Every structure is written in C-alpha cells, then in structure tokens.
C-alpha cells in the first residue's frame, strides 16, 4: 500500500488554496491542500507499525511548526506546477531530514521545497496565462501547526489519514 506524510495547513489557507485548486489542480478531489514532507512510498503492515512508532518519537521531539505562505511560485521549466510558496525554516527542514533517514532512509526524490500545490497538468498556454496573473497577487499567511499526518492511498487514488502525530510531546488525536 502507498503511504505519504504531510502537513495540512489551517482551514483558512486550505480555503484560499482550494479557490484555485478546483479550477487548476487535477488532484483537487484526491487530497486536501497540504505540504508534502515525504512523497508516496510503499510499506507493509510490519514496517508500518515500526514507522508509526518512530513518527511518534519524531513528533515528540519536534516543536510546533511555523508556516509562512508568501507568494505564488512555479516549478517551471521542470514542470507546469503552480504552488503557494511556504518559506523554509529550521523546524520544517529538520522534520523533512528525519523523514528521510534511519527507518525512513532513502534520498528524497526531489529537493525539499515546502509548498502547497494549486495547479498541475495545465497545458503550456493555460499555465502561462494563469501563472502570469497569480504571481502578481499579494499572498501572506502565517500560522503555527501542531501536527503532521501519515496518509494512505485508497483504490480510487484519493488519500486519507491513517494516523495523526501531535508535535511537542502531546498524545495523538
């Protein structure tokens, strides 16, 4: 089964992102707006139990996670993905590193660029039009997040929460 690890921002940020995603993101119906910490990976039941235990340990040692969204950006020319830029910070960087070492070993598929995707799979002409308009907009959100989530993928391609991990040593919800 496929799993992934993400942070879901507040409803306010999700509503803002979804106002664009419903038009521009082919994955709109599959997963809410999120910041990917670990891209999809395969795991069996035994490995999953060990990972959940390790994720609890990591969460207990992770302080609340500051999130600062500052602008629209893009991965062009690598891909026609448009996203909300999440400013990197030490807490996000350390969390990402921990999720790619030890039990979670393996080099990340991509360089870690914290972001919330709002558009993908756009034809080049549409991408250029949409991005040229969005990059002119002022965007500013700041918040602190107190949890991250282990997700699993359903047969229809959508993602759902398997377990939630509260940072700062609190128990899971």
UniProtKB/TrEMBL annotation:
Intervals of motif HXTX 1: 34-37
One term of GO molecular function: hydrolase activity
Enzyme class of the recorded protein, top EC level: hydrolase
Keywords, sorted A to Z: Hydrolase
EC number: 3.1.-.-
Pfam families hit by this protein: 2_5_RNA_ligase2 (PF13563)
Hydrolase recorded as keyword: yes
Short motif HXTX 2, span: 115-118
Residues annotated as the enzyme's active site: 34, 115
Keyword Transport (UniProt): no
InterPro entries xrefs: 2H_phosphoesterase_YjcG-like (IPR050580), Cyclic_Pdiesterase (IPR009097), YjcG (IPR022932)
PANTHER family reported in the protein's UniProt record: PHOSPHOESTERASE SAOUHSC_00951-RELATED, PHOSPHOESTERASE YJCG-RELATED
Family recorded in the similarity comment: Belongs to the 2H phosphoesterase superfamily. YjcG family.
Matches recorded under HAMAP family: 2H_phosphoesterase_YjcG
Protein name as annotated: Putative phosphoesterase EP10_000080
Organism: Geobacillus icigianus
Taxonomic lineage: Bacteria, Bacillati, Bacillota, Bacilli, Bacillales
């Amino acid at each position: 089964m496929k799993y992934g690890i993400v942070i879901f921002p507040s409803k306010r940020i999700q509503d803002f992102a979804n106002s664009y995603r419903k038009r521009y993101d082919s994955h709109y119906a599959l997963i809410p707006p999120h910041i990917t910490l670990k891209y999809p990976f395969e795991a069996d039941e035994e490995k999953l139990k060990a990972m959940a235990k390790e994720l609890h340990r990591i969460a207990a040692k992770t302080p609340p996670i500051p999130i600062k969204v500052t602008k629209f950006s893009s991965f062009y020319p690598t891909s026609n993905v448009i996203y909300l830029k999440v400013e990197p910070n030490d807490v996000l960087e350390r969390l990402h590193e921990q999720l790619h070492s030890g039990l979670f070993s393996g080099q990340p598929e991509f360089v870690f660029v914290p972001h919330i995707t709002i558009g993908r799979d756009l034809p080049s002409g549409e991408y250029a039009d949409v991005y040229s308009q969005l990059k002119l907009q002022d965007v500013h959100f700041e918040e602190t997040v107190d949890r991250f989530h282990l997700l699993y993928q359903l047969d229809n391609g959508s993602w759902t929460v398997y377990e939630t991990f509260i940072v700062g040593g609190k128990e899971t919800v």
